[in-house]
Amino acid sequence: MSTTNLIRGNDDRAFPGLSTYQLSTIERQRLAEGLRHFQTFADDQFPSDVACQRLLAEIVADGILPQAAPGLNRVIEMARKDIVDCIYVTNLPIEKSIASLLLLTIGSAIGRIFNYASQISNELVMEVSSDRGASIPRGEFDWHTEGAWIPRDHRVEWICLLGLDNTPGTFAAYAPIRSVEQTLSARTRTWLYSKSACFHGPNDFTTDASEPSLPRAVLTRSPLGHIEIVWPGFAVHPARPDDTAYVDALTELSAEFNRENLQVSLDKGCLLAFNNCRGVYMHALAGSDAYHLFYKTYVRQSLQALQQATGKNGPIFSLVNTVAQRNLSDRWRSSHDVRDDAQSRAVIGELTRRCTIQG
Q1: What confidence tier does 30 reach under pLDDT thresholds 50, 70, 90?
Q2: What is the pTM of this model?
Q3: 235 contacts 200 by C-beta, under 8 angstroms
Q4: Which of 3, 22, 54, 196 has the smallest C-beta neighbourhood within 10 Å, fewest atoms?
Q5: Could you tell me which residue, 255 or 335, shows the higher pLDDT?
Q6: CA-CA distance, 173 to 170, in Å (whole number)?
């Protein structure tokens, strides 16, 4: 693995939960040929129907990937079996004509690809870019998990990012919570594992984005014993106005994110796939003229809970009504409602200032 792409953590032993792989020239050629061959059945075009996209990707993942790129397939299998928290792959085919099928093939090899109806144009492959010279929203630079307001059994488990264009020095970063949790003080761990935080949700998933949810724990344990985190950036408030541990706990957590993280370049032909439940991620630009362009897709091991909740087979699911109903039923009726007062805003502003990643 070349260290020109892997900015930090280039030794797998120094970054538990990471698996890296660089395709050989022959693997890259065979994989590209296989993708082009299957796309021929769609008149050399990527199918526009998302159900056809999913089917084609599953066929390629089962029939082509193991033979064309066995080394890549072994790395993906580690993600599928939850042996690792993230994988970073380089020297993938770079033709944009087959990039969508390539990304969905890798996602299908990990689990079941899907998306939410509220996401970009109801597509399985989302294009994420920043305009050159444009003012980039602050939220893109914040550590976060995606879908913090979505119930655990409906949330994205794996996120796959495939680089298409990237200004040198621009990177994506991932901080696995199992490494971070070990470094935290006992007081902070106690706060994070207790139901001491409230999240303000976006309009897409809540009936009132200004009203916080029920008190909840930032850190939990999965049924299999994995440490998991739910973290919506800075839309976090203490459940009690008199909480004296809140600021110290969040400051310590954010400091460890900045220290215990992997940074990679999403250059053309590079892929980062990571577990959205077991870590936080962010993007960072090299400067005002920096630019990035990548494809993104979502993966879950099983879509059964989504299918039952929506009555749809997917791969696009509408969660607006489901999540809104849950928020209404879970609304906190305590007399100690969180208030967005001047003190709370000042605390959040200070946390935002402290948590800008150091590249």
Answers
A1: very high
A2: 0.83
A3: yes
A4: 3
A5: 255
A6: 10
Strand ranges across the sheet with 262-264: 262-264, 171-176, 279-284
How many residues are present in the chain?
Answer: 359
Q: 172: helix, coil or strand?
A: strand
Which residues, at least 6 apart from 10, have a Cβ–Cβ distance to it below 8 Å?
Answer: 1, 3, 20
Return the DSSP state at 109: H
Q: Which of the following CATH numbers is that of domain 12-354: 3.60.130.10, 3.40.50.150, 3.50.30.10, 3.40.50.10540? A: 3.60.130.10
What's the confidence (pLDDT) of residue 212? 52
Tokens of 68: 């064309």
C-beta separation of 230 from 147 below 8 A: no
Q: Which of 120-129, 163-172, 340-349 has the lowest mean pLDDT?
A: 340-349
Distance, in Å, from the CA atom of 251 to the CA atom of 231, rounded to the nearest integer, reads 14
User: Is the confidence at residue 71, as pLDDT, over 60?
Assistant: yes
- Check residue 340 and give its pLDDT: 40
Give the burial string for 133-150 (b: 16+ CB within 10 Å, else e): eeeeeeeebbbbbbbbbb
**Minimal CA–CA distance to 107: which of 163, 43, 60, 47?**
60
Do residues 272 and 266 make contact, with C-beta atoms less than 8 angstroms apart?
Answer: yes
CB within 8 A of 122, min separation 6: which ones? 50, 115, 316
The model's pLDDT over 290-344, given as tens digits with 9 standing for 90+, comes to 778 899 999 999 999 999 988 989 899 987 655 544 443 343 333 333 334 444 4
Host H or E run for residue 324: helix 320-329
> Assign residue 225 a region: left if phi > 0, alpha if psi is -120 to 50, beta otherwise?
left
Q: Residue 192: in which H helix or E strand, if any?
A: helix 186-193
Task: Give Cβ neighbours of residue 171 (< 8 Å, ≥ 6 apart).
Answer: 7, 263, 264, 265, 266, 283, 284, 359
CB atoms within 10 A of CB 2: 11
